[in-house]
Amino acid sequence: MKRYRNGEMWEFEHGAAATNRPVILGLDGGTTSTVCICMPIMPFSDALPHPVPVLARAVAGCSNHNSVGENAARETLEQVMADALSKSGSNRSAVRAVSLAVSGVNHPTDQQRILTWLRDIFPDHVKLYVRNDAVAALASGTMGKLHGCVLIAGTGTIAYGFTEDGREARAAGAGPVLGDWGSGYGIAALALTAVIRAHDGRGPHTMLKSTILQKLGLSSADELIGWTYADPSWARIAALVPVVVYCAEAGDEVASKILKEAVEELALSVKAVVQRLGLCGEDGKNSFPLVMVGGVLEANQKWDIGKEVMDFVSNDYPGALPIRPKVEPAVGAALLAWNEFMQESVEEAYRR
After folding, report:
1. The predicted structure's pLDDT at residue 239
2. Could you say which DSSP state residue 88 is in?
3. How far apart are CA 132 and CA 120, in angstroms?
4. To the nearest whole number, what is the mean pLDDT of the chain?
5. Is the peptide bond before 318 cis (omega within 30 degrees of 0)?
């Protein structure tokens, strides 16, 4: 068995008795954190057990190579897989499939680079699947089936969709430089901009100024510039979204406008995917699952961004069926691998 350069991460495999139970690893790698779950291979049937069995769960930091660099992303992914296997009492020889869904996988070259790296870690018989993290989020709502549309709005945002015949499309998800409007980063960045504009007289007064300064422990808006560029990481900026929601619920017009524009942008992303794939049918009324994932879409006291987005979408596509996943995206990633692994196994059996 080959080893990537971080071989020490797999030291737990030496000398320790491990179960021979075959398992699948499902990974959800985002801009903020990375989750890996270890799931036993279940008998193939029409109905999944409830709850879906999870042998172990491990969490690590960011694994988006566009955000932290390729070496750091690899180390994070390998560490979280090693941790999950160790906690489950398994090792790499028990793995039958790995389903890695990570943000930053936007092109076949991204997929191939990660597949090559994974192949250096796992034996040749292990099935490897690499996708964008939006695919796992969709599967978490559809329980492993690739059909419908998912809207993710957390630190970043993306809309991703699949048809039953395998066509796919995406909108947004290009990162903050290219305009992840509606994301946590986008909302918070606009709020910070509004504070600076209010401070120097280019924009209207807003309670965002005093509230954000208090939240950050700063005495003036001038200090906000230093705070922002000292560490402009996406997740750090996006953490200010609750402050924006608080101000909007208190009646601040500037904060409310920021959230309304975010709702419109998120709805536009969903509509773009639905239209390109024809998920709504020729008359625009066909039903399709719309999976909603991410902290930005969670309900607040007065501002329910997810509901507002759904209202916008439903005006054009009344067949959209909102789904709030009951399992996390890492489980969705594992279910994707389970479906594909079992189908391939059945096909191989027929060929014999």
Report:
1. 93
2. H
3. 21
4. 88
5. no
Tokens at 215, concatenated = 């939240």
> What is residue 238's DSSP assignment?
H
**What's the gap between Cα 57 and its chain centre?**
17
Burial call 238-259: b when 16+ CB within 10 Å, e when fewer = bbbbebbbbbbeeebebbbebb
SS3 call for 147: coil
Quote the tokens at residue 41.
């291979």
CA 54 to chain centre: 19
DSSP for 314-339 reads HHH-TTEEEE--SS-HHHHHHHHHHH
Helices (H), the chain: 65-68, 70-88, 108-119, 133-142, 184-200, 208-216, 221-230, 234-238, 241-249, 253-277, 305-316, 329-351
Q: For 147-181, how does the pLDDT look when each residue is reduced to its tens digit (9 = 90+)?
A: 999 999 988 899 999 999 989 999 998 888 887 88
Q: Assess contact for 205 and 234: CB atoms under 8 A.
A: no
User: The whole model's pTM is what?
Assistant: 0.82
Quick one: pLDDT at residue 349? Answer: 67
CA pair distance 24, 35, nearest whole angstrom: 14
pLDDT at position 282: 86
